[in-house]
Amino acid sequence: MITQPLSQTRNVFLVAVLLLQTAQLIWEHFNGGVVTHHLLMRADLPGISNWWGLLILPALVLVTGMHVQARLTAHAQDETARLKIWHNVQLGFCILLLFSLCQAIVFSLGWHDLAKYMLLGLLITALFVPLHRMEYILGYVLGACLLSGPAMPFVGVLLFTLVSVVSHFAIKPLIVYLWRSNRSAA
């Protein structure tokens, strides 16, 4: 996997995401207007329009491409490590894409409690899996935006990203430090 095909893949993915988001907005425009999602599903609270998807999705694709490229470049000498990273990126993206698509379908079918439990499960998973990586974030937002637009899933993704960052950069190093200091003292 060299940087040239990765850049081409990113650009093709960017164009595809832009076309799909534009098609969704056109369809919404001609079928009752572009949807605005209100916070806590209350009309008296501020709303976020699906027009934001034209900014959110391309930005996520570009940032994800840059992060993946940086991770692959950091292991430029070791082809096995690069292939493992690329495989993990694809796997993480696809898993969160399918998860968020299932969650959006469950929510649209009216099973709101199940959708909440799925989100709770994702928050618990974020304690152990680095869901703060960009491929996870992009997969989640893309999967959920097919039924609800990208704005609200993007706001929601900040929740499990925060849990994952705190877990992996604060709690986990503290536990490792305490574990090592107790082992060296014994």
Task: Give the strand line-up of the largest sheet.
Answer: 1-2
H/E series = HEEHHHHH
* Strand portion: under 5%
Largest sheet: 2 strands, antiparallel
Describe the fold and architecture.
The protein contains 6 helices and 2 strands; from the N terminus they run H-E-E-H-H-H-H-H. The mean pLDDT is 89. The chain has helices at 3-30, 53-74, 79-108, 112-126, 134-148, 151-185, and strands spanning 36-38, 47-49. Strands 1-2 form a two-stranded antiparallel sheet. The termini are far apart. With 186 residues, the chain is mainly alpha-helical. The protein has one domain (3-185). It is 78% helix and 3% strand.
List keywords for this structure.
186 residues, two-stranded antiparallel sheet, 3% strand
